Amino acid sequence: MAKQNVSEQFVDILGRAGVKRLYGVVGDSLNPVVDAVRRHPGIEWIQVRHEETAAFAAGAEAQITGDLAACAGSCGPGNLHLINGLYDAHRSMAPVLALASHIPSGEIGLGFFQETHPELLFQECSHYNEMISNPQQMPRLLQTAIQHAIGRGGVSVVSMPGDVASLPAPEKSVEHALVTSRPTVRPGDEEIDQLCAMVDKAKRVTLFCGSGTAGAHAEVMEFAEKVKAPVGHALRGKEWIQYDNPFDVGMSGLLGYGAAYEATNECDLLILLGTDFPYNAFLPTDVKIVQVDVRPERLGRRSKLDLAVWGDVRETLRCLTPRVKPKSDRKFLDRMLKKHADALEGVVKAYTRKVEKHRPIHPEYVASVLDEIADEDAVFTVDTGMCNVWAARYLTPNGKRRVIGSFSHGSMANALPQAIGAQFTDRNRQVVSMSGDGGFSMLMGDFLTLVQYNLPVKVVLFNNSSLGMVELEMLVGGLPSFGTTNTNPDFAAVARACGAYGVRVEKPKQLESALRDAFKHKGPALVDVVTDPNALSIPPKISADMVTGFALSAGKIVLDGGVGRMLQMARSNLRNVPRP
Fold it and tell me: Cα(436)–Cα(389) distance, rounded to whole angstroms?
């Protein structure tokens, strides 16, 4: 058998770690690795138009599958383009291995053409970031990088000069065992005893859930039933905890709705389950707080804790629930459920009157129709900005759907690239990119990637010709909107020119049929919906110092707006509330 070079060994190890695709843009120092991929039977090279897309796509694939995904960039500007998508993957705890190809090893430090220093550039958005400068480092260095990405949940970056990639791999290299899954983490008995005592003592317990409750829905419901606790959630916890939840009181935060804020602030004991919810203005300061998280560095960094519990949410609740005393008093829970239903009843009416005639089209109406007709197991990728609002309030989780966005990093232009990664995991699963015109146009070149690979992603474009969330920030800050208006083309015509299906919708009565036709199309499709830029209303007593980005710096008032089918869910939960 012919002797392997370093690139071939590198690609073989990725394949043994479960990597199915390598997203990137070919070029110069990366060429030996790409050639090794070309000849490898188990890994596909995915050619994108921008390396930022490669990193976003890899991050989305990792979030969908839970397995290691990979991306690559050539030396200097090529791998530098990866950085924004890697930040997003890292903050989303998505296991991603990034190859940052490097300039010739003999030129490093001498100001060579396209020289950068990847070991410095990627330090903040990775758990591991090292350079292969000698073939003898393979495969141990790559194995270490893989285990960091999988074991700690996040990004590892390996940089490698192009000349090193072409050198012969060391003979008799050891076949290392690779870690490809994470263990569960159980808290210590002392922490469980303390938490049990706090729960038993409290009269009013509230649970607030984040993405760390993935896989723990049954355990959360069992515990909530036993202690009669209302259950609220952050945006990243919505898909995991809101469905089939008779204790649901909505979402907290600037995009929140319902009674989640009241439930977290009027309890005796607030238990934060798997959430790194960053908006501490919504968290109480005068109740006891317990936080349960598998990442110990997150414990207590948002609020003062009375107890920090290091462990998986599921394992923690499995230990805790059998030991706590059942509570019979439902007064607090029932009061919160009624507040939740009343709150939704009050805001939903604004977007249920004459929506079929309103022009430009209400974006709330678009999101509502989309939610109704999308598949039961659809994957939604959501642009940052106003699309976050519509996803938070109108997409109905059911335990099968997935909702992915740049919810921690808050990047623009994430939805289309993430849809690429999501669709590659399963071409038969419906993937819908909820894109804003600002985000879509920022990385619009990778719409061509959909066409090139005939990926059946459906782009639903909320086209209000503006950076809507930025306009909102300026308005609340007492500033006139400036630099937020987009002069847009007919995006449907652009889609057709690219070789995809495209349709433009300007009248509400055209919407449902346009979406259904696009969803039936076998390949990529874009529905360009002209929406009302003034759709979001703000309570009149919100003050200028309340909003900085997505966070409230003072006060606890959230944006007003519709809430889709969540009102129906809240009403169904009220069946358990005693009537006077």
Answer: 12
Q: 432 φ, ψ to 5°?
A: -120, 120
Cite the DSSP H helix spans in 321-467.
331-348, 363-373, 386-394, 415-425, 437-442, 447-452
Strands 547-548 and 551-552: antiparallel
Question: Contact at 8 Å (CB) between 483 and 490?
Answer: no
pTM: predicted TM-score of the whole model, two decimal places: 0.91
- Check if the beta carbon of residue 416 is closer than 8 Å to that of residue 440: yes
Beta strands in 67-137 (DSSP E): 69-73, 96-102, 128-131
CA dist 228 and 236 (Å) reads: 23
User: Three-state DSSP class for 396?
Assistant: coil
- DSSP structure class, residue 466: B
Query: For each of the chain's 580 residues, which pLDDT tens digit applies?
Result: 468 999 999 999 999 999 999 999 999 899 999 999 999 999 999 999 999 999 999 999 999 999 999 999 999 999 999 999 999 999 999 999 999 999 999 999 999 999 999 999 999 999 999 999 999 998 999 999 999 999 999 999 999 999 999 999 987 555 666 777 778 889 999 999 999 999 999 999 999 999 999 999 999 999 999 999 999 999 999 999 999 999 999 998 777 788 999 999 999 999 999 999 888 888 898 999 999 999 999 999 988 999 999 999 999 999 999 999 999 999 999 999 999 988 887 665 555 556 777 888 989 899 999 999 999 999 999 999 889 988 988 899 999 999 999 999 999 999 999 999 999 999 999 999 999 999 999 999 999 999 999 999 999 999 999 888 887 777 666 677 789 889 999 999 999 999 999 999 999 999 999 999 999 999 999 999 999 887 754 433 334 444 443 334 333 334 445 566 665 666 655 554 544 4
Note whether 469 and 386 are within 8 A (CB): yes
CB 251 within 8 A of CB 233: yes
In 95-164, the DSSP E strands lie at 96-102, 128-131, 155-161
Instruction: Look at residue 401 and give its three-state secondary structure.
Output: coil
State how far the Cα of 360 lies from the Cα of 532, in Å rounded to an integer.
Answer: 5
The sign of the dihedral angle between the CA atoms of 548, 550, 555, 559 is positive
Write the Ramachandran bin of 527: left for phi over 0, alpha for psi from -120 to 50, otherwise beta: beta
Which three-class secondary structure state does DSSP give residue 552?
strand
Which of 86, 62, 59, 68 minimizes the C-alpha distance to 19? 68
Distance CA 233, CA 262 (A): 13
**What's the CA gap between 270 and 138, in Å, rounded?**
48
Bridge partners, 482 (sequence order): none
Q: How many residues does the chain have?
A: 580
Helix/strand/coil for 433:
strand
Cα radius of gyration (the chain):
25
Strand, helix or coil for residue 245: coil
CA distance 469 to 506: 22
Alpha carbon distance 243, 194 (integer Å): 30
